[in-house]
Amino acid sequence: MFLSLFLFGISMTLVSCLSLKQHNIINDEIESIRKKYKNIGLSVVVVKDNRVVYSEVFGYNPDANDPIKGVPIRKNDLFYIASISKTFVGTAIMQLVEEGKLSIEDDVNRYLGFSLRNPNFPDTPITIRMLLSHRSSLKKGADYDDFDKINPEKADDLYAFFNDYPPGKKTDYSNLGFVILGAVVESVSGMRFDDYVQKHILKPLRLHGGYDVSRLERSKLVYPCRYRDDHFVVQKKAYANVNKKACDYILGYSTPMLNPAGGLKISATDLAKYMMMHINKGRYRWRKRALSEESEERMWERQANTSHGLSFVYFNNVIPGEELIGMNGANHGIHSSMYFHPEKKYGFVVICNGCNSKTYADSGLNNKIIRMLYNSIIKEN
Fold this sequence. Notes:
Blueprint lengths: L1 H14 L4 H17 L4 E8 L2 E13 L2 E7 L6 E2 L4 H14 L29 H5 L42 H15 L3 H10 L6 E2 L14 E4 L2 E4 L30 E2 L1 H12 L13 H8 L12 E7 L2 E10 L2 E8 L4 E7 L11 H15 L3
Antiparallel strand pairs: 1-2, 1-12, 2-3, 4-8, 5-8, 6-7, 9-10, 10-11, 11-12
Helix pairs in contact: 2-9, 3-5, 3-6
């Protein structure tokens, strides 16, 4: 009994350096912000100096058929994290670069079973670097659910997918570009994209999550809710099964069904562990490296004087006077944020499964909570 209490005490020390009073004050502040934004559910983690200093969940996971009913969210529940998934694509690509299996300067056509070219500039290669930094000339908002639409031998209108400037010239955010990069991972590794991430990123860091919901415990999936016309609608399609049998999966071509650009499901607590790996330039505490320091720093390098690195983005609008690295996401009503300061060794993960924030990709709810957490925990301690 004494040993159990002793170990529990150690566990609590590792999770939080806040007093109970501080913890409760922060919880009350978050509840006040949640009320303003009609938040349904939320998971929040703050890390500092290689440890979790605050971790809490709020609200509920709605019933799949009723946004009013549900059960309390648990810390190990899995959220659809939207575009934060892109950093897992970038991490996978850089691992393959380290192994000498590709170069970010390579023409992506070396690894695809079809030719990817902007039809306005057919002689200009699209490189892996361009795709990682959203400078491939692919249009923002282009469909990314089927490679037939961009395969020249099958496509109806290639021009609809590309801008009228050459690859490498300008930045235009592209989900399709990261689905293509997922296909590159498959082509080079000989594994399904989700299997690669499981084996080379999630499992080594002892994280639970994945892309294919048929391989996950459904009771842990937190349903997202989209706010429309003053009410919420549960987005069941966010957790649709990969609808083809494994034997029908074509490596490098069936990739869109996994949605590498936004389809990872993971808990906020495990996402925070992944974030700590990046804060520590590729290493999570004492465990084996996911990336070398050199690869991590290459991912952070600004591309062409923009706010984009290689799958990571710089944010100056979250905390006044602080420049953070990370990624956010928004889809199906989910608002997800993962921001960190690598030099000062702190970071935040905030994921909400429904709110009335009008700014979609840069959630007012998430940013307001993060600013409060910075002032209450990071700045004051």
